[in-house]
Design brief:
mainly alpha; 3 helices; 0% strand; elongated
Length: 97
């Protein structure tokens, strides 16, 4: 039996869990270098190893998305975070001048 808090109904737990924490840690320690390779490995592990474990433990279920699409979604969010950081770096450099 799955119970949810009323404001977490129909929301994936990833934005509030290890996905965002892991992505930010990886980003912090590897930016601007080879963060994409490490982040892709982390996302692969999370989508294809941890997600099935969470499903077997009845923490959540993927209804309209398979594990590959979950991986793609995590990578898209990571790229958006990267693009946002590049934009912020550029804006910060311009404001200093």
């Amino acid at each position: 039996m799955n119970k949810t808090l009323f404001f977490f109904v129909n929301m994936t737990p990833f934005p509030f869990g290890i996905f965002i924490i892991g992505t930010l840690f990886i980003f912090y320690f590897t930016y601007p270098g080879f963060w994409m390779i490490i982040n892709a490995a982390f996302d692969l592990f999370q989508a294809f190893v941890m997600s099935p474990i969470f499903e077997k433990l009845d923490i959540y279920t993927l209804k309209e998305m398979n594990h590959f699409l979950l991986f793609v979604l995590m990578m898209v969010i990571a790229v958006l975070l990267f693009l946002y950081q590049k934009w912020k770096d550029t804006a910060f450099k311009l404001s200093i001048k």
